[in-house]
Each structure stands twice: as C-alpha cells, then as structure tokens.
Amino acid sequence: MPFLRETEFAAEAVWLGHVSAGPPLRAKAVDTLDLGFDGVKGERHEGLNRASCVRVSNLYPKGTEIRNVRQLSVLSEEELQQIAQDMGLDQLDPSYLGASIVLRGIPDFSHIPPSSRLQATSGATITVDMENAPCVLPGREIEADQPGHGAAFKPAAVGRRGVTGWVERPGRIQLGDRLKLFVPDQPAWVCENRLVSD
Fold this sequence. Notes:
The strands form three sheets. The protein has a seven-stranded mixed β-barrel. Strands 4-3-12 form a three-stranded antiparallel sheet, with no helix packed on it. It is globular and about 55 Å long. The N and C termini lie far apart (41 Å). It has helices at residues 77-87, 137-145, 153-157; strands at residues 4-18, 28-30, 32-36, 39-40, 49-51, 65-67, 72-76, 101-104, 117-119, 125-131, 163-169, 171-174, 178-184. By secondary structure, the protein is mainly beta.
C-alpha cells in the first residue's frame, strides 16, 4: 500500500527561476527547469551534498559535508502576494528571493508536511524538506531596487517563505505545468511532554 497519499490539490507553475552559482541571490526568470539528481545544473544550490549552514548548527559544525536537501526553493504565488501587501508593495518579484519555482493553487503552502512530494506532468518529482525560514538576503535584493522596503521582508515573510526541496525523480518542469501534491499518510505527531523553546 502506498505511504504517500495523493491530495485534491494540484498547483500551476507560474514562475521558474535559475539562481547562478555564487552571489547574488537573485534568480533569473526562465521557461523551463531541467531537474537532475543534483538539482539544476550550474545553480547556486546544485549538488548531492552541501556544506552545513546556520540552519543545522545545533547538529553539525559549520561547513560539515551533509546531504543537500535544499536544492530548490519553492514558493506560493498567494503567499508572495501576502508578503508584498505587508511590506507595502503592489507585488514582490520572486527573483529577489532566489526562487526556483512559484506555484499557484495550494493553500497554506509553506506548511505542507515535510516529506510531501510535488510531481509534475513529466514525472519530475520534488521531495519537500521543510519550511524555508526567511533570512536577510532577499531583503538586500529588494532594497537595491525598492529602497526603504528591504528590512520589511523578513518579518513579513515569517510562515510564508515557501519550502526547500530536493529532486527525487529527474525531469523537466515548464511554465504552466501542473504539480500534484502527495503527503505522507500518517497522523500528526503529538508529544505529551513537548519541549518548549525560550
């Protein structure tokens, strides 16, 4: 019996981006992404492995070689619009965020369960790692073009920054493709003595 349950949700790929290796974070809009097991060839986050960063500093010393589960940054068009409104902007260009894919049609997208799958018509499949916490780098890109708005990004993006993911099955994703959402078929974890952070 399959352990991943197909949901009623499918999303349209409304924007695709390529983030060149090295700075800056800004993505270039493209019509197609060819996904390999390493991610997208020539991209900043390409590779089967990566050096650990601050996001996992409680597990590994910075720079430790670990599996790369951050090959792609997937965002929601609806959440980008909410971020823009909170920042006082009419819209927010996904290129500022180093986005790989922007989808339309999945509510509360940034909180889909870790290990969910997004599968394109081609069969290309992305495994969701987890919610992508906002950082200051997109704010710097925004500030360069929209002076006075960059600092507003991080607080406006909390809970709306999308997810990171890695390529489980290679293939092509094109603008307009529909990606189906599959989620793990398991109950939510409930812990009686849960750890409360400060």
